[in-house]
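Re: [help] complex structure
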Amino acid sequence: QERPAHCARGPARTRERRRIVPATKVIVNIPDERPYDVRIGADVLDGLGNYLRRIDATANAPRILVISDDNVAPLYLEEAKASLRAADYRVSEIVVPAGEKTKSVEVASEIWEAMAGLKLGRDCAVVALGGGVVGDLAGFTASTFMRGITVVQAPTSLLAMVDSSVGGKTGVNLSAGKNLVGTFTQPAYVCASTKTLSTLSSREWACGCGEVAKTALIDGDEFFFWLSDNASALASRDHDVTAEAIARSVVFKADVVAQDKTESRGVRECLNYGHTLGHAVESLAGYGTYSHGAAVAEGMRFAARLGAAIAGTSIDVVRAQDNLLDELGLPALSWSAAPEDMLAVMKRDKKVRGGVVKFVLPIDIGQWELREVEDDVILEHLAAWARSK
Ligand code: NAD
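Output below.
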């Protein structure tokens, strides 16, 4: 554990008044990539500028462009800019509309034009201040502008802190599907200021909790039982439990990405646990009806039951996961759709090859398998799922 840099510097009066909250640092070390730090703590946004002065990729950047959305910018953009200016950076900003629709080629193009207008060079850097939408969009535009300028992630949603800000996937959506265009570009630094989470809606909070639960189940006993013991504290946003859940999730994700940076070795697939059915729920219920996290949680419940039927998953695991999701505020949905419609949507997923749908199945806590499942088996289980509603 380390102390935030500002604690040693601030004027005496400020130091006395301020509660010193230790920050946690996780180092992400991916083969053939420059290692980078993920700092998790209440006040790390305040120290952003100073930290960037210490990182080779950003130390001498003549300008930093902060990209944010119109929900996050009024809340945290000034603090980010003040921190960068205090470290003597020249700062520019772009604020995009909040929401998934912004992750488009059209908005990316506007950002590229703005970058050119600002005369950003290869030695400049972009800070993505926001949730996963801003992170993916800013990461994508930075990694393609002038064949790639440095990107720093400053996630402000729980989902972005535990998942999307780490691992280097960037991208935008096409009308043919989500994330169809993108790059693998690791950030130079991830600045996860837990203080920003205080303004996150309960829907987005539960969404992040769904990803934490997914990670814990795939990771293993230690994370899973720690989370089970602390689920209600996480659901009620206890600061220390939240910071620890983020750190544990980041350690897990960093390890997975280190083994399979470009999702080509079958390791990174585990991150899709719950997503096969989850994506179909989101699509058929209509995007936005259920949060991504609620849909993934439903997908986890389905995959565990499918695992119990075809892969030997113990019923204790199914129950333990059900309890965890309930406690995290992710109850089973009362919604269902016709099995044939669900299967048809699953088959449209970009990860489907040769028309065969694959599921990440939890064999046990900390043990998973990617299984191709026959259509008739899926339909039978979808029918049971629909009947349970
Ligand atoms: P998001 O970025 O849309 O944020 C959710 C909402 O919360 C938005 O309205 C946003 O403005 C608001 N918000 C964010 N931080 C806030 C704060 N501190 N206070 C108040 N409001 C705040 O969505 P998300 O759930 O963060 O991310 C979802 C996106 O992440 C999807 O596009 C998904 O494809 C992507 N994703 C990427 C990866 C990856 O590896 N790159 C992994 C998972 C998800």
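The longest helix spans residues 239-259.
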